[in-house]
Design a protein that fits this description.
The complex is a heterodimer. Chain A contains nine helices and ten strands. Chain A is α/β, with parallel strands linked by helices. In chain A, about 45% of the residues are buried. Chain B is built from nine helices and 21 strands. In chain B, β19 and β20 form a beta hairpin. The longest helix of chain B is centred in the first third of the chain and has 21 residues. The chains are: A alpha/beta, B alpha/beta.
Chain lengths: ~270, ~375
Amino acid sequence: MNTVNTSASDTLTLYDETFSSRFLLGTALYRSPLQMSEAIQASGTEFITLSLRQQNPQKNDGDAFWQLLKDTGCQLLPNTAGCKTAKEAINLAEMSRELFETPWIKLEVIGDDYNLQPDPFELLIAATELIKRGFKVLPYCTDDLVLCLRLVDAGCQVLMPWGAPIGTGRGLMNKYHLSSLRERISHIPLIIDAGLGSPSQAAAALEMGFDAVLLNTAVATADDPVLMARAFSLAIQAGRSGYLAGLMQRRQTASPSTPILGQPFWHNHPPEHK
Amino acid sequence: MSNTNIAIIGAGLAGRLLAFKLSKLNYNLHLYEANPLTPAATAHLSAAAFTAAGMIAPISEAIEADIDTYHLGKTSLALWPSIIEQLNLNAATQVEFKHSGSLIICHPQDHAELSHFRHKVEQLSRQCDAQYQILNAQQLNALEPGLNGNFTSGLFLEDEAHIDNRQLLRALLAHCIANQVQVIDNTQVSIEGNTVISSKAKKSFDWVFDCRGIGAKPQLPQLRGVRGEVLRVESKEITLHRPVRLMHPRYQLYLVPKPNHQFVIGATQIESEDRSPMSVQSMLELCTAMYSINPAFSQARIIEQNTNLRPAFIDNKPQVIVRGQQVAINGFFRHGFLIAPAIIDSVIHWLQGTTCPHHQRIFSFLE
């Protein structure tokens, strides 16, 4: 994909808008709004998700929490968490657009209550309709290639496949599916959304060529969310740089970095210590 | 000291407890409340303490908050018995207070949640004297036979308690009246410096304590309300001896036994100042949790659904803000019964010029 190697010009483009951070962060589950805003700051994120249903800001009532989110200066990404049908998600997206005055929507249509797995059928219906209505849709989807292709056909300019079910912290469960997704859908950004538990898993996603990660639980429920936000931020930068730098290919046999040809033969045996 | 005139604004938990404690120290006290306080009008009480479940759970709450909350809670846990003892001297104002611990349980499929909680309690216990016990299915059943037998393990936090919040609020008010506190209810007031202004009168005091909770927002713009929804149900079939917390990946709910076969189940926590009635989603979640704790709850009667706003500052910690002769006590968040005695005790020590024995950090002094 991107062949520009300097970090200043290595930006993420979502629906023609440019972002320098590759870290999207959720705003739920923190111990206090203060801790949330400190974690957001430490993460360097420019995009924060929020739920209209669980964090229900009242328009124009001076709601302090809502004000705090605006004060972060981040782009707000309302989600449709908790919706189970396309119709419900479309309605909630419309309400969010009006309340938050933004066309951005993280589209979630849940098919299974227990692992919060996206419903691919309803998701596609909702995405198709919302794109028509002028939304900038970021669909939370499974790693199914055909579903992802259909979402692209529907006009989505970014996809957000899961690494693992929401809140599980299991990381990239199906690397084979994810890498085929990356290979086949190389012309638009792919963001790993959900399931990441540790910074190394986020780094791995970026190394695989994913453009960004979105997470919440791993940061918010850490003993020290601010430090964890920083840790993820560093891991994401490391993973991205690793990807841009070009990873070496794995090999079956060891290949010493210093050629052994020409070395005295007795170096082949470890020296004996007495 | 009987020549010191004090106004307390807001007859919620903080206001009543402060008035009760000060009334034993011979101050001249006026307690103002915006709502009517006749027994028949209790349903209209807007105090968050009236809606609350009345848990005094320093360990469970510190897991979601921090070590300061634990220490405030432990101090309060030690202070409650003497308050209750004084109230219970009058047979008409008995208050149920049970220091019988609390149980933390989860469904077998959510075991990770219980492990996570246990890990946090272990961490906490390294910083303080928090104690816990791990229970297997038999021990759970022996301790709390009213639980559904499907629970295979749990945590018992012995050093936690619960109180009947409504009995307590009534008893505090009755004792205040008996101790010559002048109660001016059904009266909205504003505060200017040391003066309390209502539509009928204007009166100056030596000290004005603002204990209005979210009602103090005009004075404390940094205050926010956090929506909570609770149900009160009645079931004669089920007996529980202590609060039960149900761990779940997406919410943490608790069921607290109350006198007269009643139970309070709560509470949602939504970042909003919306006071509208409970949502269907919340009702489903609360009922499902209750049903899973014991299926016999399916025949319980829902006697109340309540929505209220917890007053909170940005760090969700309490504050005592002293500005001239005006003292604001606010930001108890979800911890009213857990922390009120410790904070009121500190405030009284400060008022009497003695060194606050604990929790100095809750005070701030403004010009």
